[in-house]
Queue: 4 jobs
Job 1
Amino acid sequence: MKREGMCRVRFGRITAFWTSIAILSLFVNAPGQEPSTAMPAASKPVAKLPHPAIVLKDEDGHNVLESGKPISTRHTCGDCHDYDFIANSFHFQQGKTEMDRALLTSHGVAAFNQSPGMFGKFSILPNRQLTGLDVKDVADFDMSQPEWLTKCGVCHTGAGISEFDLQGHKFLTADAKPTGPLDPSYSIRDREKGQVVPWDWNKSGIAEADCFLCHTPKASRGARKKEMAVGDFRWANNATLLDTGIVSVQADGKFIYNRAAFNQDGTVKPEALDLSDPTLENCAQCHGFTARSTTTIQPIQHADIMRGTEKSGWIYNGAKISDTVSPNVIGKEKMRYPWDGHAAKGIVCIDCHFSVNNPGRMIHEDQKEHLLYKPSGEDIAVYLKQPNHNFARGNIPPETVNINAHNTMRGCADCHDAEKIHTFLPYKSRHFQALACQTCHIPSVHFWAYRSDDWAFLMDTGGSRITYRGIDGGIVDPESEVTGYSPAYMTSPGKDGNLQIRPTNLISGVYWFDKAKGRPVFTWQMQTAFFEGLPANGEWKYRPEVLKAFGDKDGIIDIPQGVYDTPEKIALVKGLLQKYAAVEDPELRIEITPWAISHSIVGKDQAIRDCVLCHSKNSILHRPLDLDTFLPQSVPVTFRGKQARVVNFEGKEPVFDNRELLSSFYVVGSSRVAWVEWLGWIFFAAVVLFSILHGALRLLGGGL
Amino acid sequence: MNSSTPLYALHERIWHWLQAASIIFLILTGFAIHYPDRFGLFGSLARAVRFHSWIGFALLVNGFLGIFYHFTAEKYHHFLPRADDFTEAAIRQIRFYLYGIFKGEKHPLETDPRRKLNSIQKITYLLLLNVLLPFQIITGILMWGADRWPGLFNSFGGLWVLGPAHTLGAYLFLAFLAGHIYLATTGSTPLSLLRAMFTGFEEPSRG
């Protein structure tokens, strides 16, 4: 009996155990959670403590539910976090705090730039230049601070340059006054009138730090963009919350607060705001296509989002390329690996690009003290009060943004022990010193990217001619065939200062440079030279001289016609710029801009392992990536701010020529010293010929 | 001369053939490294590099064994040219190669175990074993040690100096090999010298 009883007890315990397991497993797969197959196991959300419920306050510190005014993050978030400390970082200043001529010079940033950051650095992509405080002539006025905010402010996270003028005075305060009619903080170029007119800050308001854009998973970048674009800065942060249910838009466009999203005590419901560390999706709004695991990569509107992806084609996504539903990636069937190996492992942006004083992530390098890790990190309370928003970053060409924070993130070698896993590779240290890890681990790009942006000849849209590589068809057409591309290679200093070869996209820009002023010709000057007045119904009308020189027999200028293929055409436009746009000494120039690639990392099975790919006469390291088909010849070519011989015009189409850039690298099996080869073979051939001749004479003379 | 005494002792023959095999293998692997896309004899560049390194060290060891043998057996003098090896003997030898050999003249040097090398051979081997071979070994070891002693490697100009220098040396070795093989046919019969290097005994000169 006793034995039987024990059996029953055991049976009962076993049954209870397995029943518990079964019930637990049901909870693990409970509705509302992602199916386990949709997300890699490693990327399951980590449990987190919710942010305390907060009151959304207005500029007077009152609950917005009562006042109905725009949310003031200075008061809402700033009560606990040091708002001014946070807003002094790059995401909010965008280069304003780096407007230092000595700093620019020391980093090789051309003199016509105001800063090394997005706010102040000229780029061929938008072809716009921030106007400095020193501008005295309306002809030198291009993009003012308010216009910058309407164009670029959607990604700029508020505060900093949308709260303070270039002299450091806070807008809408007594000290904030324009220095004159051309003060770029208080004026804007009116394209229709062709004049510089005052900007009404009272009407637009200021945009405080948009903490929600990065810390609310449901942030609505699109709604924010709309408010910034129309110059309604003060409501931009409210717009960001449009998808959270906290705010709604009325028919008249005004924002109202939804009581259902608030608790009885006036605090906003934590689940509505869901304040958290920045998610992949938050960063993706501005930096490039980033997702934990998705099979659909949405078509992209030009100049809107995914700038990083547009520039070099990287996709940070944990899903396999072969599973991609859209876009139409050609050959995806064979690509049974993730778009990015790190994304597939559940690594998120802030794992590498963390706040540098986050005690849990900060690097404690102190080489003088020989410490690799210092356990006594910063106090968590200090961090929560003053989290450093100059996030850890690398140093990827051609970026000069946040120049003082370069190389603050962990490098590949800080997580991976490359020496251990590259057993097939001879001369590991040499390889690791000469090659960035990306060189082998981003063998190809499976998405499209910018190929050229030609501002030297304006199309009838009034804008530039843009071409893309890696796609056959329009970039927003889901039917287009995405073929991807193989990157070119350039050099840039690694963390230790040594030059390394790394993969890059190349964007060719053709533009006119005003030699007298020492800066690129502005877009409005180009439009003045090319077109007769302002656009009617959105269609710009070319000047007759332009049509005569460039148009086809029907008087139409399409992409193949708008090219500088003769010196006469160059001379004509030069004359137009002098005549109509008062550009004294214009010069046609080419700029080849590299956009190095650091995401879309593949694992060892897809990485380059075949030595011959690099170590051969046709080494991929010298891959002649195609450039803009219509690049004009015999004009100065600049590469990373310096004139360089990087374009080879000898073939059918202009291609990238990096021989000069990589000249310091001797690649075994690829590099040759011509005279050594000639001398060696001549010596050998001479001996062989002598032997043959000598032997033949012996044979004839009977000496054999 | 005692006909039972071989012209080339067993040690010398082994040393010679090991040296020959090493140099041929080094040239082949060298080609596989220098022209990896056109000379894939060893499967991969990495494997060719490994083989090249191992054989290079084997050649080095063989070189030291050769030095040890020639000094302890007091045979180093074979490789030391006398004064007339640079003048009269050299001229006689050159005249023979450029003229006499076609007329069926007798070889100017009757080899025996005490005098195995003619003056041209002595001068060539002096340069080969004391200049070119050490040059190749030094440049080769410096490149092999690029990962181990990067400072030393870079102080010699790195790959842009060492690579082409080693390549030029390899071409000279290749040229020597071609000439050496051809001149090996200039014995009493085309294969007599080759046979001697296997058997140790050289057939009497025809002349």
Note: Residues 10-199 of chain B form a domain with the Fumarate Reductase Cytochrome B subunit fold (CATH 1.20.950.20).
Job 2
Amino acid sequence: MEEKAKILDKDAISRALTRIAHEIVEKNKGTENLCLVGIRSRGVYLAQRLSFCIKNIEGKNVPTGALDITLYRDDLALASGLPIVRKTEIDFDINDKNLVLVDDVLYTGRTIRAALDALIDFGRPKSIQLAVLVDRGHRELPVRADYAGKNIPTSKDEAVEVRLQETEGIDEVVIMKNNDKTQNPK
Amino acid sequence: MSLEFWISFVIRIWTFDIKPMNWIRKDLLGLEELSKEELELILSTAESFKEISSREIKKVPALRGKTVVNLFYEPSTRTRVSFEVAAKRLSADVINIAAETSSVKKGETLIDTGRNIEALKADIIVMRHNCSGAAAMLSRNVNLSVVNAGDGWHEHPTQALLDIFTLKEKLGRIEGLNVSIVGDIAHSRVARSNIWGLTKLGANVTVCAPKMLIPPGIEGMNVVVTNNIDFALKDADAVNVLRMQFERDGQAAFPKQLEYFKEFGITEERLEQAEKDIIVMHPGPINRGIEMSSAVADGAHSVILEQVTNGIAVRMAVLFLVAQANEKIKNENTD
């Protein structure tokens, strides 16, 4: 795999998140009953940044949690690599809340399907909305994002890599391309 | 699941903040063969599972459609129930087989029993057996996962893991801790598993028992041996008090239970004399007034009931990891 193009840089990510924060506040008419839940691992950091943006806009703290969906996957073992189970930390009541689920990349929709199952076990939110930094298409399930930082048409032999300050020490989104067609893409 | 999904998934995992360490064993037979990293993976996975038991809906679908068979050749309530609860919280189906009420009574061999359970398309056997090495032998003869729930005097890995998990939760670390194990070391699989696990994770282990209950060669396991309880408690961070197994041959080895309490019983006075605020653990069931006083068992030092709670998270982690690894092995074989 090698880098094909940089889609978003630090400033573009920051602008996209600020815009999404405004859209969330607009759609939900403020921050009352609003909460954010990020999907591990990058969704959690994006949710925290959105929460910070919303605080700048409305001056109010929005409860923010972290969701690990490993135990809700539709397959136990992966073809390549086994996921590590991490902690789910939602220390507030999600019943009757307008809950915004946050992830970095929306692709097949299967992660979101698993996240919805997990959330329903925690309670019955009034609504669940979806915010993603990148929507790259190729859905396999009827899932769509309510808020997207950027729509990026991709081919299936490409991969979208989101790198964040908190995890990789840099804010950027790049498209990776698999050059060797004979080799199985990893 | 499409390959494309995994392309993106693995790309994402590559850059995780914590480098994922894979669990590749289909079985958990003992702690002796595990690496430090494997022990740490089980402990951190258990940490993630602990939260599930505090939810209103105490269940996740991770092992939905899997069947766990509890095969117990020895009486056990707490270990069996703990495994049963753990499996059910992962949405697995659980079947309990007690040897006294099964075809084992008619002379069926362990391997035949195992193969029959495999033919029923079960996925995991959790086995308690009175012979050391029984779990390892079973695992060599079946393709399903085998989790050792205690084999003879050999190992009881999940008990040691939950002891270590509780210690780590209480004190924040294992490395450098002084842990004393007191009681019937000779006949204790709990002691053996604890020694393996604790020493691999960097703790200093002392074993303390009457001379006849110290097995020969135990020094080779990298532990300090003593017959003096006050020495064992002096600078200990924690003491793991083993049950005197009077139903085995403890009775013959040490006839006077009150005398044992006088020489080795954990009392509040003894704990107060020690330098540190000692954590007291016990795998249960407690013989009150023999291994420890009731005041200690119910007192501020005791974490005995927390051990029971943590046992569920640890066993959930073990069941999940072996099931996941076995699934991967099966996938690779069919590719």
Note: Chain A has a mean pLDDT of 91.
Job 3
Amino acid sequence: MIRNAAGREVPQVVNGQARTPYAGPDGVQPVGRKHSAPIRSCSAYPSNGDKRAPTLLEAIARSGLQSGGTVSTHHHFRNGDFVAEQVFAAAAELGLRNLVWLPSAVFPCHESLIPYIESGVIAGIEGSLNGPLGDFASQGRLPRTAVLRSHGCRCRALQDGDLEVDLAVIGAPTCDPFGNMTGARGPSACGVLGFAMADAQHASHVIALTDNLEPFPCAPWQIPGNDVDQVVVTDRIGDPAQIVSGTTLVTSSPERLRIAENTAQFALATGILRDGWSFQAGAGGVSLAFTVIARELMWERNIRARFIRGGSNSHLVSMLEEGQADYLLDGQTFDLEGVRSAGANPRHIMTSPFTSYNYHTKGNFASMVDLAVLGATEVDLNFNANVVTHSDGRLMHGIGGWQDALFSQCTVLAVPTLRSRTPIIRRELTTFCGPGELVDAVVTDRGIAINPRREDLIASATDSGIELTSLESLMAGAERLSEGPPKPADQTGDMVGLVTWVDGSALDIICQTN
Amino acid sequence: MESGLAAGGLAVSSESLKGDCRVSILPGDGIRVRSSVQAMYGDSIHELAAQSWESFGAPKIRIEIDDGGALPCVLRARIEAALAEHTRQNLPVLPLPCVCPQRDRRRRTRLYIPAHTPRLFLNASVSDADMVVFDLEDAVPSSQKAGARSLVRHVVPTIDWGKTEPAVRINSGIAGQADLAATCQSGVHLYLIPKVESAEDVARAADVLDQFESLALLMPLIESALGVENAFEIVRASPRIAAVSLGIEDLVLDLGAQRTASQVETAYARGRLVNAARAAGVQPLASVFPRFDNPEDVKAYAASARQMGYEGIGCIHPSQVRPAHQALAPSSDEVAWAKSVTARGQADEAASALKGAMVDVPVFRRALRILQEAGGQR
């Protein structure tokens, strides 16, 4: 173990792979050239462009996947994903064991994969891990250490070669026999396929799994068939009811509304919410409420956004269609309106973690966004934050694109002061996920604390008459109600997970909880 | 719908108990805690329970606590209520908080929350409502009244209410006097007394407060035809009275009328009440608006109340607060008018004219009040 720049003890080798300790938000400077997929020849593929295999089992057998190999799937179908389950059912039937699963994210539906872990088909998971599988990993029941990578870090790892994908199975809502595919159409339409783009380009073998085959060409395609080895038609790849929510309801929780309102007031007072601005807000309760309140303020003041970053939803789509925003740069689609717009509106742009989040590239979109409104499970007095574990040490939330989005021009952590009895602001984080250097303000139901590094924001907020507070004062208020800080989580258990920073360095570890 | 894994491996459903706890007194001994925040606060809950148990003379019982992340003030209230019931002892005396209720503060919105539902308490404190009313009366099932009373005692003095006035609606009759006695030393600023029909009803409540040397204010709720007829006597019954309102549901029943959207059936009562209140120098507050799905409806209700002279409305959901405040604020036309009136300087003895209308002292005062109301708007 070695102490990294965040002051956390991290291992130098994880799952047999050497790990550089975290060296600060700017990361370790990369060297060398990008990693590439093996070169293939047209002669190995049917000249009529028909790459169909009869079954997924057959296709996986042909892919050359061996026991101990790595298999990736993606979270385009969110909680309605039927792809991962079919992949591992076929792998089990083929007698493959000790596979490492590389999901871009997992959802509660993936609890169905636990039997494959228990039977030894899956030995480890690397990706964004949460919910039932997160809890499962927390209990030390995964044979290999889980490696948590943000969306951008996953993409970077594929590009840099520190994560090699032997087989990528991409769920394709509409696909042709050549492998051109799109997420915008079909019974399992999910909007955009951005998370699979890196895998399509870097995996050793790529299978497109579709429930909606149409004759060549499937146009416009989001992923070209030139990256695809085989195409498999199956009954269903996703449950439309679970892929996207029909409606994106705004929270009625007064606490969350208050946080959202305070965030909007902060954006207005600091001059961030101005004509031509840009912002990123997710589909969580606070983010959605923030979007709704920001829209009201924008109408009142005749303000337009140049671009907004999705996760798209009905509110962002309305902004685009009603002229409140010029462009919607979308990484994933959260509701049916988002799917409809992604398929129809030329200003609704599909982005991928490459364009938006990858840290080892010539700039990315995330840092260009004027305001990112993010959540956190814990924040310490130096604005460092946790987003993956609860204060009892359990791994409960996906890391998602959270670390990547921290790089925005102004990052706000919009959090309640208390979650039931547990204060969110505390002296020491259970898990260190993001450095305070990148967090510009913490906005709560009981006040706004701006990072002292951002003297400019403090000055403009104060000039506008916004009352500011400090993290110390917010913590004291919460601890008065909770009658003291929570007992720190027991961190003496075995390491079950590694949290990486965007550059792939070792940021913190997650210990087994009982 | 996450559930906490508790000691002993039993899951505590934190949905039903969110922010709350269940305390069971059983034969036997010892204290058993199961909590959704076990790892963080399990020990602290145990300690808190042991202290309460000792303060009741360490009776020979077993205490079982199922906790969904309740704040310590909620835990303490629930444990004390259970111990008091079991041992038939009185609730312990609490340290007296320093409270200075303000008679003339703004009461545009008063948000009712059932006093037996702790998960709503913190939300209410950040709702921006001018007043939060812990309801001990109709919203609380009779089996939960004692627990609710205990919660008020512990929660009101613990939460930072900011600019919100913490109030309690007591029960009517004898139960109400017991509510007052149990809670009036807990920092409650104002009590709503339901079903008031006469000045004596108010005097009885004031007597209890006098007895405990509480400075709390009173707000009678008039809910019957007789009460409406006695409105002026009622609002003059005590200097503690800061505001008055109608209980529309009961009143309509008593009148033998039917509720309509136009509220025509209570036109007389509403007119009578605002007149009596103004005559006695007491704030007239409109009754509760029962729907919260459409902010425009809330605005329309509040605006019509304001036209009649009412200064605030009752709310049953925090989402009503914002539209109510918007509707109760003076319009931009009104503000412009008020500015033009006051810009001419003090209206002294002589009446002057503005845009063909007379501006005398009452008009000038009305303009000042509009500017004051507008100034307080966020």
Note: Residues 170 and 487 of chain A are 43 Å apart (CA to CA).
Job 4
Amino acid sequence: MKAKIIVTPKKAVLDPQGKTIRNALEHMGYTGIQAVRMGKYLEIEITGDKETVRQQIDEACHRLLSNPVIEEYHFELE
Amino acid sequence: MNFAVLQFPASNCDQDAMHALRHVLGHSARLLWHKETSLGQADAVIVPGGFSYGDYLRTGAIARFSPIMQAVQSFAAQGGLVLGICNGFQILCEAGLLPGALIRNRSLQFRCEHIYLKTRSRNSPFTSRIPEGKLLRIPIAHGEGCFFADEATLQQLQTNDQILWQYVNAQGELSDRANPNGSLLNIAGICNPRRNVAGLMPHPERACEALLGSDDGRLIFESLMAALQARQPARAA
């Protein structure tokens, strides 16, 4: 199965890339943009029963794929 | 003194650290490849700068799981002295040996220049020999040196006197303009509560000879040497 993982900077963390992208979008004429946060997307191909895979991916997200000091993550299995 | 200087794929300040320790300061130092599992007879460990593992995923994120870092964890747990410089600081934060994290510079620019540091705490093995009030002029070279920690951690850093160095202007004043990367509280370097592990973004190993524009970085290594010398009689007894 495939784990689709999204890692984003926490709200309290400064995200200069998101801010720069927002400015660029505004300069291009897009209106109504409230905020842009830039994160990462990972896909992991993995085999095993769903519950074990869920636990493994959750642990991997916590230990390596995200840094809990500055980032949040969520993932889907399909 | 015997220094262990770690070497990861894409470390690039390892040789600068070796040069400063061996040829300028006259100590014995050896390089340890990241796949080693033991530090051997090391009195102190330097985690040097660079772009370990290409900075993939996050700076320092992969390096912290390398075999040699497990040895560094035990060494630090026993009270051994560990100094992380630039990428080394990022690795120590990722490893949980130091609090907080280093994120992308607020300006999004890679900053490569000399800056001024104020020593906020002289109560550490990394700062004891820095004269009171002396500003250190030391180079930085990083794109991800913005120190971040949550409010509670920042409070702890201040309460425990763990902030060792802050970015200041040439007059020694803390200001936004003197802050090259957006670090909270202008933090350039910190230590752990036990005060045996420290990290900083600036490069003291590149500022050990007047020929290079500044030898202020020597004061940090000389503090380290003094701390190690003070420890030796205790070990012999």
Note: Chain A has a mean pLDDT of 96.
